[in-house]
Amino acid sequence: MYLVPSILTIAGSDSGGGAGIQADLKTITVLGGYGLSVITALTAQNTRTVAGIEAPSPEFVALQMKTVLTDIPVAAAKTGMLFSAPIIRAVAPFLERKNFPLVVDPVCVAQSGARLLEEDAVTAMVERVFPVADLLTPNIPEAELFTGLSIRGPEDICKAAEKLLEMGPRAVLLKGGHLDSLAATDWFASLDQKPLPLIQPRVQTQSLHGTGCTLSAAIAAFLGQGLDLLSAVRKAQQYLNLGLRSAFPLGGGAGPVNHLAPLFKERARRQVLEDLAQAGARLAARPELARLVPEGGMNLALAVPYADAPDEVAAFSGRITATRRGAILVSGCPEFGASPQLAKVLLAARRHNPEALCVLNLRLDDDLPEALERAGLVAVSFDRAEEPGYLKERDGGPLEWGTYEALARHPEPAAVDAVCDGGEFAKEPMARLFAEDMEDLLRKLGLLLTELGR
């Protein structure tokens, strides 16, 4: 029997559902844990403001802790909003006797700006909670509050991390989202690890409510599954980044991340296979496509929404070929991971245009570039001779590199429809046509075939 790890969150309730206990329990559940909770405060909260806070008595918080811990084995835990010194003193004795990894998110201020930690609680947290933390996860303002330092760049981060480690936690993850930079960089440090930058693409979104809660809960969930600390942090970062990329608008202020994003991606897999099969049938019914089928065969790939790995891109397990009489043959079945190279090409394009979800490779002859232009399709190209030497032996490296670089050189990468690859010795010239969905791709292909038939 598979045992679901029990993950405990000790935090405040967010009536708006985007942060606190609610965010923690969603995160823990989606990532395969069983969520337990000790509620330290009730907030009247939405995406705009925290209208009020009511805290249970420290005695009742302690009773929640005792009741949970005396009956249910905890695999990992996290703390969030602890609110007051008396509540911290009520929780601390249980944490000092713990036999599970503990993530401490020293929540001080809500996304709306409301203070969530009373003045007298700062010292209590440093003295009673920091020393028992396996990982401390402050953001920049919180790190400045606890260290008294001004943090503006990497050197300041290193000093702050060193000072925080002196307060007792086994490791520190200093979250850099508040810094002005192209990427979102968190810094991981421990007693035997100098500050290590952990970089994720920065997501432009207003849905930032509960990001710290979500990250710390995800780390705890992965620790409860047996991952080491650094691996748990990296996987939690990926989960949060996906939640930010797939966030939906909610309320009139800072909305929440999409905690259910992994489930939505999984649910989309069946539809992707069905859409791919239908598109294959429609391609097979177009004999004029034969002139665009490469000698090595054609393939069509479709990704799930927010795909960021090759196994989230499906293609035909065989190839699409043309007979000497012009018949189009679609071999094999739609499968995820069926075309690793085409998947990597699509993922490279998605780094510039996250809306791109499908790609079709075409034979590149002398007529194709002009036909693309007449069809109103924007094409760019790359030269394999410019490829860095270290990529030569890497599977799919030239195509990933070339696609990314060709799009990077265009002033509007999201407007590009096709990337042309002139090939090299033993490598056939090809064009790769990108689209947002299958209907969009078939529309573009129709325009192209019309121009080629003139």
Task: Provide keyphrases for this structure.
seven-stranded mixed beta sheet; L-fuculose-1-phosphate Aldolase; elongated; alpha/beta; single chain; six-stranded mixed beta sheet; 13 helices; UDP-N-acetylmuramoyl-L-alanine:D-glutamate ligase
Specify the CATH homologous superfamily of the largest domain.
Answer: Ribokinase
Order of strands side by side in the largest beta sheet? 14-11-10-15-18-17-16
Quick one: overall form? elongated
Largest sheet: 7 strands, mixed
**pLDDT below 50 for ≥5 consecutive residues: which ranges?**
none
Level-1 CATH class name of the largest domain = Alpha Beta
Q: Give me the secondary-structure category.
A: alpha/beta
Number of domains: 2
The separation of the N and C termini measures 65 Å
Radius of gyration: 26 Å
User: How many strand segments?
Assistant: 18
Can you give the mean pLDDT? Answer: 92
Into which percentage range does the β-strand content fall? 15-25%
For this structure, the CATH topology of the largest domain is UDP-N-acetylmuramoyl-L-alanine:D-glutamate ligase
At CATH's second level, what is the architecture of the largest domain?
3-Layer(aba) Sandwich
Query: Which range best describes the helical content: under 10%, 10-25%, 25-40%, 40-55%, 55-70% or over 70%?
Result: 25-40%
**If helices are DSSP runs of H or I spanning 4 or more residues, what is the number of helices?**
13
